[in-house]
Amino acid sequence: MSTRITLDVTGMTCDGCEGHVGDALAAAGLTDVSVDWRRGFAAGIDTGAFDATKATEALEGTSYEIASASVPGDEPGAAEAPEDRDYDLLILGSGSGAFAAAIKAKDLGATVAIVEKGTIGGTCVNIGCVPSKALLRPAELYFQSGHSPFVGIETSSDSIDLGALVASKDELVGVLRQEKYANLLDVYDIDLIRGTATFTGPDRVEVDGRPVTAGRFLIATGASSWVPPIEGLDDTGYLTSTTALELTELPEELIVVGANAIGLELGQLFAHLGSKVTWVEALEAIAPFEEPEISRLMRTHLTDEGATVHEGVLATRAGRDADRVWLEIEIDGTTTRLEADQLLMATGRRANTKNLGLEAAGVETDPRGTVIVDAGLATSNPLVWAAGDVTTTPQFVYVAAAAGNIAAENALRGAGRTIELRTMPRVTFTTPSIASVGLTEQAARDAGNPVMTSLLPLDAVPRALVNRDTTGLVKLVADESTGELLGAHVMAEGAGDVIQAAVVAMNYHATVDEIAAMFHPYLTMAEAIKLAAQTFNKDVKNLSCCAA
To answer: Which residues form the catalytic set?
Structure first.
């Protein structure tokens, strides 16, 4: 009798490692061996000759070690395996979290199916990250071509063909959807079931009325645009973050309700293409979850570019007069009417849990319908896990992917893994972009930490001076008693790349003195992290280039 064996192997760092480990396993009697050093994973078929002790001895003296070996179903907490069960794991949804879970489950030797009623690939590739950034970049370049900061170089911007730009975006989305999602079904032997899935009990799911049985279930149905109840809005006609990316005619004037990440990105997209944009934010500041210094600076930057920003105001009524939309807002007790060609509602996203039958499944949700999960992505039903935007975890695609991977292993093997969000970064792809990791100053104080901060304007960063663009800053938050970095907040060109240095530093609990002592390449924006760390103890404006 042949049995598929899966092994967790530590110490692999390159393609060559795969060969060494594969040879050792084959010599120990495993056939059809596959090894993936990136995942620390190996698998093969045992026809009765495999000797785990011999494999361990073969790797003795190397950096490789077999951490665990298993067959499907023998792990602690693994699903029972009745003969008539369709799948070991049934996944509802087909986005990043779903595919990460499916791939991990296949690595563990499980049988897997994904249920999808719409377009495969989920939010990120279809209507979120990919299409928005595919339009943000050309819009940024178009704006820059008409606003060169360099003496001696004249540039200009001509007319745009928004329809052609959107078509190019759609082509890229189609390619990535096929290559990163659809093609993987065959690569990993994952079944795709078309239809609408509904729980009919704690351990039962039907797809368009047909029962599909599984040992474990994963909810990864994502989230959709949500709008607040504003009088007249439903009859007005408005854009969402999805439909805004489908426009082929540029609005002369645009109202954007909501100025968090999505609202800021999409509003600036149209502003850079030539629209007159007005932002309306109900909270006290735009970019409301960033440091106040960043929120204030971004507000000034947007108004300098010609936009109008209303903060701390309430939208009360909406309507349409012929081809124009209007929105009434309350400012200090006074009603003001705004008018534009289009109205974009960027007021957040809510979990796609309606009609999933979660009550029948015994899966608890919060008042907004979001699936409540613990640190191991388990729900209130011991047979059901959840990952991605449908859950109470932060709505980022990389969080969804990490959660899907963890959820699958916990569901199938009882691994006890948890998702760690202490060093989770976030990026807003405005120009300049905003990126943060860890605690804000206020959050650190609220947590009871003794706090010290540094604030570095970009005019102290040589790269920004060379670029002739000093709009931005870096703020670091550290523990005053230990010096450990607690949070980093960047507004600058390439902030999303710069922030990774802070992510790594926080992952290893580095102090600001240790960060300041590290090499940072000169004339890069990454050097701003070093300079901000030095700012705790020195006036960096009085240092020579690269001075330690």
So the answer is: 12, 14, 17, 64, 124, 129, 545-546
